[in-house]
Amino acid sequence: MLRLLRDIYARRELLLILVSRNLKIRYKGSALGFFWSLLGPVFMILIYAIFARILRFSKGNPHYFEFLVVGLIAWQFLSTCLHDALYAIMGNVSLVKKTAFPRIILPLSMLLANLINFLLTGVVLAAYLLIADATFGQMLWLPAVLLSQCALCLGLGLIIATLNVFFRDTEHLLGVGTLAWFFLTPVFYSIDLQWTALPARWQWATFLNPMTGIVCAYRRIMVAESLPVIPGMALSFAVAWIVLLAGVMVFEKYQSRFGDEL
C-alpha cells in the first residue's frame, strides 16, 4: 500500500491533468460550462421540492424535504462515481496500452473530479439549508464522513473498473444493482422504518450497508437528525474502508492483464 501511495504521489501531475480533463469533458460543448456544477443541484432541489409536495411526503414532518435532499445528494455522489468507474479503464485504452504509469490513477482521477462536483453541490445545499432555517449538527464530523464515502466510492470503483475490462455485462448489472441498493438505503425514508422490520437484536445489521451509516451521518450533520445511530455509523464506516482495501487488492491483482484484454 505504501508503495502504491508513493507511485501515485510521484505521478501527481498526471493525476491533476486527468482530473482537469474529466471535469472539462463533463461540460464540453455546454454554453454554461462548469457553471452547471452549481445550477444542477439548484434544479434538482426545485424538482424534488415539487415532487415531495405533490405526493405529500412531508405530511407530519415539516423538515422532511431537507431530510430528503441531503440523502439524495449523498446518494448521487456514489451513483455518479460508480457509473463513471465503468469507463475509467475502458475509456482510456490508448493510455493503458502505450504509457507506463500506476493504472489506479485513472479511477482515482474520476473520483476526485466527482468529489469537486460534490463539494460544489454541498455549497448549494448548505445555502439552501440556511435559507430553510435548518439546524446544523456537529460539522467537525464532516471530513470523516466525506473521507469514508470517498473510500467506499473508490473501492467499488476499482472493482467495477476491473470487472468491466473482463465482463462487458458489468454495465447492465450495475444498473440493476444500484437501483436495488438505492431502495435498501434510507434515502426517501428514515432508518427506523428498517428497524421496525427487524428484531431488536438484528437492527445493527442495517449498517452493514455502508451507505446507511453515511447517509445517517450526513443528516446528523446537515439537519441535526437525532437518531441514536453513532455505533451503527461506525460500523458502516468500517465497511467502507474494508471495501477500499478489497478494491485495491482486486485492481492490483488484475491490472497487469488490462492491456491484453483491451
Overview of this protein structure:
The structure is a single chain. The protein has one domain. Helices cover 73% and strands 0% of the residues. It has 12 helices and no strands. α3 packs across α6, α4 runs antiparallel to α8 and α10 packs across α11. The protein is globular, with a radius of gyration of 19 Å. The two termini are 26 Å apart.
Secondary structure elements and pairings:
Blueprint: H1 2-10, H2 12-26, H3 36-55, H4 64-90, H5 93-98, H6 105-131, H7 142-166, H8 170-184, H9 192-196, H10 210-222, H11 230-254, H12 258-261
Primary descriptors:
globular; mainly alpha; 262 residues
Rg (C-alpha, Å)? 19 Å
Topology as a string of helices (H) and strands (E): HHHHHHHHHHHH
For the termini, the CA-CA separation is: 26 Å
- Percentage of β-strand residues: under 5%
Assembly form of the protein: single chain
In the predicted model, the low-confidence regions spanning at least 5 consecutive residues are: none
Helix coverage percent: over 70%
Coarse shape: globular
Total DSSP helices: 12
Number of strands: 0
Mean pLDDT: 83
Structural class: mainly alpha
Largest sheet: none
What count of structural domains? Answer: 1
